[in-house]
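ESCALATION

Customer reports they have been waiting on this structure for their group meeting. Please prioritize. Original submission:
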Amino acid sequence: MNEYYPHFSQAELESKDTRLNRVPGTGEHHMDPDFMLIIELIREDYDKPMKVSSAYRTPDYNEKVSSTGLTGPHTTGQAIDIVVSGTDALHLIHVALDSGIVGIGVSQKGPHGKRFIHLDNLPDAPGQPRPWLWSYS
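Update from on-call: job pushed to the front of the queue and completed.
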């Protein structure tokens, strides 16, 4: 695990496109330290492992995989997607709200292993209202 964030490995925090040419866990993740401290506290309160499906993304990679383009939430290092479903997803949302998370995206369709909750702590801005809760289509 990462020395600064004991519940998360370097490989799961870095952008997936940086892993294409490197050994996982040797790239940079550019996660915001204050945001990750909140995520660590959430993990402790949640009291279960939190499998990360996406954390930091380089702008180029984010443009390939997200409608948010070059400047999406994951490019800031203040967003993370956690693979979770059912009652565990609801529990995670409660813990995140109690921890001050202001952006929560819910994807709970399809196979359980593909369902996730997006958490971010972005500032309120035009086109990016916070606090905000949304679902993915």
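Sent to customer with the following note: The CA atoms of residues 101 and 109 lie 23 Å apart.
Escalation resolved.
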